[in-house]
Amino acid sequence: MVRPCPSVGPRGRLRAWPGARELAPSLRARPARCRRLLPRGGAAPAGGGAEAGPGGGPGCAGGAAVKAGDMTDNIPLQPVRQKKRMDSRPRAGCGEWLRCCGGGEPRPRTVWLGHPEKRDQRYPRNVINNQKYNFFTFLPGGFVLAVTIIREAVEEIRCYMRDKEVNSQVYSRLTARGTVKVKSSSIQVGDLIIVEKNQRVPADMIFLRTSEKNGSCFLRTDQLDGETDWKLRLPVACTQRLPTAADLLQIRSYVYAEEPNIDIHNFVGTFTREDSDPPISESLSIENALWAGTVTASGTVVGVVLYTGRELRSVMNTSNPRSKIGLFDLEVNCLTKILFAALVVVALVMVALQHFAGRWYLQIIRFLLLFSNIIPISLRVNLDMGKIVYSWVIRRDSKIPGTVVRSSTIPEQLGRISYLLTDKTGTLTQNEMVFKRLHLGTVAYGLDSMDEVQSHIFSIYTQQPQDPPAQKGSAPTTKVRRTMSSRVHEAVKAIALCHNVTPVYESNGVTDQAEAEKQYEDSCRVYQASSPDEVALVQWTESVGLTLVGRDQSSMQLRTPGDQILNFTILQLFPFTYESKRMGIIVRDESTGEITFYMKGADVVMAGIVQYNDWLEEECGNMAREGLRVLVVAKKSLAEEQYQDFEARYVQAKLSVHDRSLKVATVIESLEMEMELLCLTGVEDQLQADVRPTLETLRNAGIKVWMLTGDKLETATCTAKNAHLVTRNQDIHIFRLVTNRGEAHLELNAFRRKHDCALVISGDSLEVCLKYYEYEFMELACQCPAVVCCRCAPTQKARIVRLLQERTGRLTCAVGDGGNDVSMIQESDCGVGVEGKEGKQASLAADFSITQFRHLGRLLMVHGRNSYKRSAALSQFVIHRSLCISAMQAVFSSVFYFASVPLYQGFLIIGYSTIYTMFPVFSLVLDKDVKSEVAMLYPELYKDLLKGRPLSYKTFLIWVLISIYQGSTIMYGALLLFESEFVHIVAISFTSLILTELLMVALTIQTWHWLMTVAELLSLACYVASLVFLHEFIDVYFIATLSFLWKVSVITLVSCLPLYVLKYLRRRFSPPSYSKLTS
C-alpha cells in the first residue's frame, strides 16, 4: 500500500485544502524543488511517505515519477485504496474544498432520461459562483461597526426624545383673543407667556406679573447655576399694578434689552410705558429676569419673551466639553498601529520571497487580506462591552450607593490617577453651616455661652418702659449690663435683618399653608436663601430670641421673645456678588421711623469701610485659624434727607444703559464710609464623614491631592490641617502675596529652599507666578506633597488642571460639587461630581457622580484598579487570539511556497473569534487579583498601576512572542504528527487552536467566577456540538478516532505547558506584590 500524497489526490487531482486550485500555479512554478524531494531516478521508494522538504513543507511524495517541468494539475499516481465508509450517502459539497475535508467523493453515475425520481444521489446545483467572499467574510467588520453605530444611535435617540419632550411642553400665551395653548418650540420673541407653579420657564423672559400677594415669586435654579436654594424674583412695578393680566395687551410699552450673552448673574435693560403721562421708565436687572431652564416655585407668573433658541442664556453657557478619550484607549490605538505595520511587513515579506514574480502588487493586496486577522477587529467591541460591565458593577456596588457613571468610556482612567484636585466647600466639607462664634471686640460668645446672648435679648424686650430706681451700689453694674445688652441686641438685630432669606410656610398635615402663614407657625416655617451661610445666621437669631417670621418684596417682620411683631420696611437691597464680596440692606423701623443701612461682608473689603479699630484684623485671623467662615457686620444710621438724596442718585444710575453696574456701584460706595462695626460672626462648615482616612488612603496610593477653593487663605489652611491633607509632621509654606515679577522671583527662590513642605498660595499670587514663571512654579509645586490654592476663580481651577496635564503628562481627577467646579471637572481627565447642597450641576457635568467624598477611595482603589487591569488582560488576549491564527496562516503559506491561500474559510474564521472563544476571553472582565477589602487595606497596590505596566510595550512584545510560538507549534505539530492524515489539516489545527485558547484563558484567571466556568464549558460544548453542522469543513469520523485525540492533546500541551512552567517559576522567584498578599 502506498500512502496518499498530501498534495495530490488519488485520482490525480491536486487536493489538500481550501483554494487548492489556486495553489497549483505555485507548485507548477517550482518543479525543481519538488524534484529534490524525490529519490534519484524519479521514483519514490516503495511505501515511501510524504517527506518534509528542506523548508519544512511537505514533499511531493507517492509512488510516481515526476519529471522537471511536468508539474501540472493532473499528476499520474498509483491507485490508493481508501477505507470504505459505513455511510455511503454523499454530502453536498463545494468542489475541491469538500473533497479535501471529508466531503463526498466524485463517483460514476447512471442518468435516467426523463426520470428525476430515479436519482440515487444528490448533485450540485447548476449555479456558477465566481465570488471570492460570502456573507460570513464581512460579518466581523459588520458586527464591529454595528455595535459602535447602535451604541451611538441609542444615545442620539435618547437625546432626541429628551429634546422632543422639552420642546413639546405646552404653555399658555396671552393674545387679543384670550389665552391659547402653544408648544414650547413655537414660542417667539415678544410673546406674553403664562408659567404655572412648578413649571419650567420655556425661554428667557422679563417678569411682568405674578399671582402672589406679596408681589414676588421664587425660582428654583439648580439646573442653571447648580444652587439648590430658591431665588427671589420681582415683577416690573407698573405692570404688576395693572388690574388683570389681559390689560398687558391694552398698554403701549416695550422692553429694551442688552445683546444676548452668557452672563446668567447679570442683566441690563429698561421697561418703558409710553401711553402714560408722563411716560414711565423702569430699570431692569437680574431680579426681573426669568431664565429658561429655571422652575417657578411659587405662584403663576406672566412674562414677555426676550431671547429664544441658541440665544438663551442656558444654551450659550452650555460649552461643548472636550470629548474625553482615555489614556488606555490611546495606548491600544498605538498598539493597533504597530500591528498594522506588522501586517504590511508580513505581506511584503511574502511577496519578496516570491521574488516579486508576476503581478506582485496584486499579491500584496491578497496577502494584506489574508493576514488581516493580525489587526484584532473585535478588540474595540470587547473593550466597549467591558466598559459597560465595569459601569454596571460600579452602579451596583452597595458600599458606594448612589454612584452614577455618566461617561462609560473612561472607567480605566480611574485606575491611573496621579493628581486629585478637589474643591473644599461641599466636597471635603458638608456645606452645612453651624453658627459657632459671635465676637463683639471686647467679648466673644461661643456655643457654650449662647444662653448669655439669649438672656441679653430677653432683657431688652421684656424690661418695663420705666425702670425702677436702682440702688446706689448696683447702678454701675446695671449701666454696664445695659450697655452690653444693647450692644448684643444691635448685633443680633443687624444679623436678623441684613440678609436675603425668606421664610416659607408649608402645610404639615395639621395646619394648611394659609393658616400657617397667618399665624407664623414655627413648625411649618422653612428658610430659603441663596447661601447656606445666611440660613445658619437667621436660624441662630431665632435660637436666641429674634425670629424672622415674614418677608415680602417691601417689608420684613421679626418676632421678639415677648411675641411682639417688629415691622420693617425694606427701602433698598444690595445683593451679594463675588466681585463686591458683601451685601447690604436699607430698612426703616415702622415703630420709630429710623432709617438704618446694614452691611455684612468679607473682612478684606469691610476693613476699609468700617470706622478705625484695633481688633478687627487680629480677631478675623484668629477665627479663620479655627476653621470658621468669618463675616463682618456693620451699620450706619441715615437721616431722611440723606436717604432721599441717595435714592434719587441710585434710581438715576439704575436707569443707565451703558456702564450701569459701575455707576450703581459708585453710588452705593458713597454710603459705605465710616460705618459702625457691630460684630464678627463665625460659621463652621463641618468636614464630611471619613474625609481624613480617605485622604490618607489616596496619599498612600501615590496620589497627590491639591485643594482649589474660593475661600480665604486662613480658612483654607485650617481646613487642610483639619482634614489631614497636610500631615502633622509637614511644614506649610504660605506663599507671600506678590504683585510683580521681582516679588514673584524672590518668593519662588525662598520656596525653592524648602523641602517636603505643603504649599498654600492665593489666586492673585498664582496668577502672577503663572504669568512670568509658569515652568518654574509648576516644577516646584509638583514636588510638594500637597498644594492649597485659595481665592481661586473657576477659570483658574481649569487652568491649573490643564497645566498639570501638560507639564507632568499624568492623569488628573477633579472633584467638586458646585457650578464653579464644572470647568475644572470638564477639563480634567476624569471628573467626579459630588451631589451636595449646591445642587447637581457639577454632578451632571462629571464623568462619575458620587454622594459623598469618602466613596472616592473605593471608586479609585477598587473599581479603577480592577477596570484597568481587566481591560489590559482583555486587550492582550484579543490580540493574542488574532496573532495566533495569523501565525498559523503564515506557516501554512510558507510551507506551500508562499501561496496566498486561506487556511480557514467560511464559518470557521467567524466562529473562532465569536462563539468558540469570545465568552471565555470576555469573562476576564470578571477576574480580580485581590479582594476589594485587600485593595482598600493596601492602597500601595494602586501605586504599581501608575507606571502603566499591565499594558506596556514590554507586555505587548511578550504576548506577540507567545502568539508566534503557539501558532507555529500548532501548525508544525500538525505537520509532524499527522503526515499520513494531512488532508485533515483543518480539523487538526483548528481543534488544537480552540483548546489552546481555552486553556490559556483558564491558566490566566486568578480568581474564578462561576460565569467563567460556564463560559469555558459553554464554548467547548458549542464547538463539539457545531461539528455536526460543520461537515463541509471537518470530517466528524476522522476526529472521533483515538489517534486524533491523543495527538491533538500532545500539540495543545506542547503549546501551553512551557508557558505555564515559565509563569510558575516567575511567580515562585519574583512574585508580584499582590500575590504576596493573597498568599
TrEMBL record:
Keyword Glycoprotein among UniProt keywords: no
Membrane-related topology note: Multi-pass membrane protein
CDD domains membership: P-type_ATPase_APLT_Neo1-like
Entry EC no(s): 7.6.2.1
Binding site residues for Mg(2+): D423, T425, D817, D821
Domain of life per record: Eukaryota
Binding site for ATP: D423, K424, T425, E534, F576, K600, R629, T709, G710, D711, R791, K797, N820, D821
Domain P-type ATPase A as annotated: residue spans: 173-311
Record's catalysed reaction(s): ATP + H2O + phospholipidSide 1 = ADP + phosphate + phospholipidSide 2
Transmembrane regions listed in the UniProt entry: 289-309, 330-354, 360-379, 878-898, 904-926, 956-976, 982-1003, 1010-1030, 1036-1062
One GO CC term, this protein: plasma membrane
Residues covered by the P-type ATPase C-terminal domain: 844-1071
Active-site residues from the entry: D423
InterPro entries attached to this UniProt entry: ATPase_P-typ_cyto_dom_N (IPR023299), ATPase_P-typ_P_site (IPR018303), ATPase_P-typ_TM_dom_sf (IPR023298), ATPase_P-typ_transduc_dom_A_sf (IPR008250), ATPase_P-type_domA (IPR059000), HAD-like_sf (IPR036412), HAD_sf (IPR023214), P-type_ATPase_IV (IPR006539)
One example GO MF annotation: ATP binding
Family: Belongs to the cation transport ATPase (P-type) (TC 3.A.3) family. Type IV subfamily.
Protein known as: Phospholipid-transporting ATPase
Record organism: Bos indicus x Bos taurus
Phylogenetic classification of the source organism: Eukaryota, Metazoa, Chordata, Craniata, Vertebrata
Annotated gene: ATP9A
